[in-house]
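Protein modeling request. Please complete all fields; requests missing the sequence field cannot be processed.
Requester role: graduate student
Desired output: 3D structure, token encoding
Chains: 1
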Amino acid sequence: MQQCTSSSATQDRERRNYGCSRSRDRRGLPRELARGIKPCFVNTYSLPLPRNEGYRADLVRRPEDARACADSRPQALQGNGVRIGPTRKKVHVLLHTAFEDARHLRRISFNPCDIPKKQKPKYESPDVNPFDEFQEAAFLAAVKGDENEAMYLLPLDSGARQGELWALEWNDVDLKTGVIRIRQTLKDDGANLMIGPTKGKTERSLTISPTTLAALRTLRRLDLSQELVFPNENGGYIRRQNFNRRDWARIIRKAGLSGLGFTFHDLRHSCATMLLRDGETIPNVGKRLGHSKISTTLDYYAHALPQDDARPANAFEERIRRYGA
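Delivered output (325 residues):
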């Protein structure tokens, strides 16, 4: 790839060539932007962008030059039928900040990511699809004695993510105390498998129930030489597509829950929902799930909090009686 220079003689050539195929990777992204970006992120969040537009702030001088960048605004995303989630919101904030700096440096005359307040899309709470008590009971009855029983019990018990479970190693599991350590995750973009840090970039330790611990002990006795807790039939990492098509579809049918849209990730949602309904605090649930902010837990699971409007009034009445007022 040609190295960029700052001389005015080469700037026009850069403007013409920056969007051509020579300066782009196989995904259609400019190589400067694509370097270091994980394939799973690109596949999930990239949008089709014009191939002949400039993307660098120092080459964006006219409104028509900035249209491709402006297409990343939440307003444009919503117009394309894309729901505004927290990650896209962060992308817009990042782009807006970058273009605002460029405007202050007089590299561009306006910020293409500016949106009037009235036109800003409202943030939508994430959709979750947890089990209710009857569905959870049916699922637990179906997994009892199944070859993957421990794999199904652990997310319902711990709230661990799918990738965190499939990257779990036996040296992260204390079969005596029932404490597991979540320190890495398996990322599957459909083409490649990658081991990396957890979503929150932090490790966490969780105490699991005696039933889940017993299932893990049984699993361990089957193969003492295995490093992974949940390997595939060849001892390697599980592929999400294969698991969903074979094992997950089978256990959902056995539980009588077909057609309700349940995914493996809904076991995590069910864990959090049931904990909150049983009176567990928001900070403790967020810590168990690996959320870095309490606000994330509230965004997902506020609906599960017990609603008792009479309790505050009764508490105030009790204080009045205690004071003798």
